[in-house]
# Entry
Amino acid sequence: MKRFFTLYLTLFLIISVKSLTAQVTFPINGVADPREQGTVIINANIHQDSKTVCSGCMLLIEKGKIKAIGKQLNIPEGMVSVDLKGHHIYPSFIEIYSNYGLSEGAEASRPAGGRGRVVQYDSNRKGAYGWNDALKTDYNAFENFTIEAKQASDLRKLGFGTVSTHKMDGMSRGTAAAIMLGEEKDNLEILKNQTAHHLSFNKGSSTQNYPSSLAGGIALLRQTYLDARWYQQQGIKEQTNLTLEAWNKVQALPQIFEVSDKQEMLRAAAIAKENSSKYIFVGVNDAYQKLDEIKKTGSSLIVNLNFPEAYDVESPFDALQVSLADMLHWEWAPWNPGKLVKAGIPIAITLHGLKDKKDFMKKIRQALESGLDEADAIHALTAAPAQMLGIFDQVGSLHPGKWANFIVTKGPVFEEKSSILQNYIRGNAFVISEDPAQLAPGTYDLISAGMSRILEVKKTDKGTEVSILVDTSSIKVTYQQTGQQISMHWSEANQPLQQIYALEVENGFKGQIQSGQEAWSAVEAKLKAAQEPTPEKISDKVPATEPMVLRQPFNGYGWTTQPGQETVLIRNATVWTNTKDGIITETDVLIEAGKIKRIGKNLSASGAILVDGSNKHLTAGIIDEHSHIALSRGVNEGTQASTAEVRMGDVINAEDVNIYRQLAGGVTAVQLLHGSANPVGGQAQLIKLRWGWLPEEMKFEGADPFIKFALGENVKQSNFGDGFNIRFPQSRMGVEQVYQDLFTRAKEYETLKKSGKPYRVDLETETILEILNSKRYISCHSYVQSEINMLMKVANTFGFKVNTFTHILEGYKVADKMHEHGAGASSFSDWWAYKMEVKDAIPYNGLLLQEQGVVVAFNSDDAEMARRLNQEAGKAVMYGGMSEEDAWKLVTLNPAKLLHVDKRVGSVEVGKDADIVLWSANPLSIYAKAEKTYVDGRLLFDREQDELKRTEIAKERERLIRKMIQLKKGGNKTQGVRPQREHHYHCDDILDEMTQYKD
Amino acid sequence: MYKIYIAIIFCFFITPSFAQNQFLLEGGKYHIGNGSTIENAFLLISEGKISYIGTQRPAIDASTQVISCAGKQIYPGFIALGSTVGLVEIEAVRATVDNREVGIFNPNVRSLVAFDAESQIIPTIRSNGILMAQSIPSGGVIPGTSSVFNMDGWNWEDAVFQEDIAIHLNWPERVMFTGWWAEPGGIQKNEQYLKQVAEIKVFFDQAAAYRQNKQIIEKNLKLESMKAIWSGSKRLYIHANLGNAMMDAITFAESYGIKPVIVGGKESWIVADFLAEKKIDVILRATHELPSRQDEAIDQPFRTPSVLHAKGVRFALSMEGAWKQRNLPFQAGQAIGFGLPYDAALSSITGNAAAIAGIGDRVGTLEKGKTATLFVSEGDALDMLGNQVIRAFIDGRDIDLDNKHKALYRKYKAKYDAEK
# Structure
């Protein structure tokens, strides 16, 4: 007959042995009970690794390790034999990203944030550690690990045998340890003390203020690499720093970095590259969107299986809340693992991120249906993580000398009907599921003393159903079977309850029946007619179809094909040249290879795309000197008076839809500024609005570097609430001293640097030094005349110039002084009365400054207003009557001058970049609309194309919503909609972005 | 010369106008505010009213001041609905903020008595043509009662044009924005929505019962003030933005026999048919806004007015705040660029705005018998390239168009000129 005899009985035996393995150095209470006779497994299909299968083979286990695998092995006498009768064996899975056995130290709770909170500037950790609590490099999982039976059991049930565990807390999380999932002694379960150093962009339980932004977090990591090098060479002679000491030690280990998306991954990869390190990444669920770029980093990925469920979008108002990007990601996400493998990027698979770990197999199958090969899945769960962790010599495949860590499955492991029967850890079996033995379907003669019935056994979707056939009706029988043990009961009309306990035998069962709690008698069932297996129902699942169209950026307004640099002839337009030629009518402009090639009357160019500019106005693209769009996770570091080390260029979010929206307002370049929460903010980044290109590619190449300074109410935290009154400075008096101090220290730093003596490379001071040496320029948030005057005096003292005062709403009061100093002004057109320091702001500010010879620009500091900067320039005509030509320069040529890029952009001149806009009317008028916006000669916004995009978005949304509704109808799980979160940063946003991931 | 300027400007105040003389506006283009224009017309102001408008020159007496408006454009005074003019002077300075009260249901709280007629903001907005404003309380579920003011007056009694016109109800939103201004949080689905609606219902049920009850012994100020929304002397302004929230809110109000005004209406373009069928007036909040969602048309907020117009929904354009109101005309202008006819745009801040505020019979258009609240602009007042207000009248009074900004401009211009 069947399978179970040998199997079940032997297994129970082995399990009872498991905790008796002797452990050297520990005293024995009682009699020594060594049982190391070894086990031989026979009749198994042994998947030694993802490619090699030994069918009908034997596997010999001795002292927890694999001794031999083969068709015919010489089995020494006295071994326990287990017959697997054709079941499959796989190396058990390895969870590379776990916090198993460290639960006590998992995410610590954080004090509540919000307006009233007390701000903590310094570390509150006792001991000789580094300055920042987000770095917990000295933590070692192996020192803190202890077996947690429940967690171990849950992992074993899913097929895992080994994990690498670490404390998921902080930006540097210390080291992970490889742990086997047995339940003997902690000493025996640790496979390797240190497998990896873990990092993230999440400061975890640290309550310290810094870093509060992603840009700050990146700066912290970059500085830590420098500090560690300094410590090794010099610092160690002067002091002890356990964090840096640990940092240096863990560099030899694999570095595993958790991120929240592809852009973050590329940012982290840049840190690695800068420091000759390499990271393995986890959390790049959207890797499929940027495979080439990811491949180029040479990184391996640990992929999550948290593919989103379909959204519940039955109500149209709910559907509105889900973006096309989220819906498309839902469709693409299961393809992520397969796409990565096909792209040649090494992957391991983790459970991490799965809300319900029990979905593991389901999600794996989803990935298999979505382009992942079975062998690759096995590899990604076994050899790949083992290799990444440096434990492949011990686990990860089934070969002699490795630990006997494997799973026994009923069929090929990932098949829906398969199941994991046992999980062996060091040669000891844990039973995962009983072999679901069931009576074979068919009809049976059920016979006992004084009774004869027909028993029918049917296989249905719900399992095995048993009934008694009496005449034409059938009576349902409650039936249970475990192994060969069967119990069943039923009652017929007006008859007593019948209960059977029986054991399965060939073609039936034999046992005892009790009728009506009285008579006991023998009972026997014999197969009368076997039921023909019915053909399987075709699954009503929506088949996984490979999504083909990948938008860049990944949202409705992204490109399916990126626009190229065309040759375009715009004819018969009114051209606002911003040169001595002024505004010229009925003029043609030819652009080619990204540049303005010719300007004139009646131009022709063969092969050029012709654009009719009649009754239209052609201008240079708008440049926004003060913008906070297109930034990821925070605009303000702002946690210290100076954060000059922070770079906005590190956190460009190339996928912010506001880039596209601003192109629609005729904007072609913006300066991404740090916020204004501290006197010295971060380094600025000038970008062109190259919608659809990578963050790095958006940077305005060759532009001079800038930095944000800030004065007044924000830096003295006047409007931030009562928790914000301890950081220096709290007054305009203190602000000056911050600068005096920084520049003085920078000078001293320079002296030391030049002396040739060893010194600690300090990113912050290096930046300040650049300012002193006029290699970096200031854009300073400022309002009132006293502070403007002050900063110019400080600059004079230290021998540099303040390049730009931004906002500068009282600039008109000191316009002459600004002119004398050589400072420019980047102002609002008409804002005032929103806080005390703008009570004297006037809309004539730009005009007065300009009249004193100051270069004046109008900026937005606001994602919405930025798309109407042309109208803001128009207000300069309205208030005081600036000429239209000069007013237009406020948002084009003048900001280009302030940013030192006026040789490239800002006017319509031959040889300049083809960053130009075609307007429907006088661009200063409220009625003007940007119809076409070119950046580098690429048509990145076109109002007609935009209409098509909307139709396309609607069509795609309809398709996906229909698909989701269909799935829901089919009984599939859905998730409630989550309203989209879109951050529009302003100068004074001080949200702590480093304590949580965006999802 | 320089010193004289300083003396004048050091205490810069604008004196409200005294006399209601007779004025004749001669020539120019007259935007009536009801959808029509008259070219080369005459407009006579006497006793604070428009006593004549037409193309025939009316007879005038010797005391009538004649103002030549040839080549100019004449508009009804713009009306800023839903503002905080007079209630908030400097947003970040708590001492100057008077538009919020403690408590959830405060229908009895009135903006009227907190209105600062001396606000320095007022002269800066009326010099752009905004001659009237509704100043509203905010915060809580029912923040209070609002009034409409002239942008000219010695005190609130003097400045108020129509007192206590509306009770405001902040309808619970189905999604909530978390965080505070410096630390904006995420958006969450409001799980409490139904509970919050139920709480409002309890309040309205009690108010409705209180109104019928003839044996009230203990007077309840909150419920007392609610009576007016049934008697008709105050309208119910429900602030709601999401499409389904608006539908819920309107249905709610109708169940009490009240026809509400919707304030906000961000998604009114989605439910425009519903609004049109129920003849609901909408006061649109700032259309100089980003789309609500990533997929939404990039210019949806600019287009929404034209959608409402096309569907026959009567609406006014508005924005929050005080100082920003000077940009109200440009919000109307923006909508023109996105499909709204000029006259409809103008009406949304004049005639229709007045009608929605319940004062349309007295003001809002350049029609005979209406209050003479109007101004003369050099050009198109809805475009920054044309908005140059050269004369303005409120209740027929000739208004000083100077303001703090112009004064500071003159002061520093004089300084630099003197230094030349």
